[in-house]
Amino acid sequence: MKRKLLMALLAGTLAIAAPVSCFAAETTEVAEADAAEDSSDEEEDADAEEADAESADSDDTKEEKTAAKKKEDLKTVGEKTEGCIAFKLRNGTGKKITGLAIKTADETEFPENMMEADDVFELKEKKRVYFSKENSEAETAEETSEDTAPTYDMQLTFEDGTTADVHGIVLEDLGTLTLREKDGIIYGTYKLKSTKEKKSTYDTEKAIADQAAADAAAAQAAADQAAAAQQTESYDYSYDNNDYSYDYGGGDDYSGGDDGGDGCLDNGLLN
């Protein structure tokens, strides 16, 4: 009897322990599956990040290739020689450019047009310019003032035949020079490669334009004054320069007639 009771108790204990053991095993399997899934997600994230990095590298490479292609496709002005100044020039004005000449600020005359006869700077177009400073005063200026970068002036000729000058450009320390127009004034903007400082020639061009307008107004006023003085002289009303006398000494003789009269008309005098 005792043995049967012991067997029954043992069977009951096993019956209770079995579900607990099964639950524990199931919990372990779920935890392992979650861990495996997390690990898989991390690997996928890592792969995605690597793919993104590769994609970014690919995009950078494409951009570099595109930029290189654009660089090759840019039309050029001037001839590329050893030691020449190379920069990009963008036409941001409202008119097409048909002529380009560059000189140092110390020179008084612009050289000949650098552009070909059939070449045109279209609106918003960018070209690569090669300017040779050979036989130019720039060499002397650079040697005598090493601390100060030489500046250059640029003369533009537009399709309508008008011209405009842009002054004081630090040509050797820029990448791209953009030509702009504001209130009828043509000027240039650029960024220095050495200091990243933004530069604009607008104030210089406006001061020059204002001075030219003042000089023109003064010259016109002087011309008007000279014309008025000349007109006054031409209308001289002096009677000394006019002769209103008549000569009665010649011609008809009224001193006497054949009848011995006194030359007076009969009844010429009334009492």
What would you note in describing this structure?
There is one protein chain. The termini are far apart. The chain has a domain at 76-210. It has helices spanning 2-73, 138-144, 202-234; strands at 76-77, 85-91, 97-104, 126-131, 152-158, 163-169, 176-182, 185-191, 198-200. It is elongated, with a radius of gyration of 50 Å. It has 271 residues and is an alpha+beta fold. It has a 6-stranded mixed beta sheet. The protein has a 3-stranded antiparallel beta sheet with strand order 3-5-6, with no helix packed on it. A hairpin with a 6-residue loop joins strand 8 (185-191) and strand 9 (198-200). The longest helix is centred in the N-terminal third of the chain and has 72 residues, at 2-73. The model is unreliable at 17-57 and 138-144 (pLDDT under 50).
- How much helix is in the residues? 40-55%
> What kind of sheet is the major sheet?
6 strands, mixed
Radius of gyration: 50 Å
Order of helical and strand elements: HEEEEHEEEEEH
Features of the shown structure:
single chain, 271 residues, alpha+beta, 6-stranded mixed β-sheet, 3-stranded antiparallel β-sheet, 3 helices, 20% strand
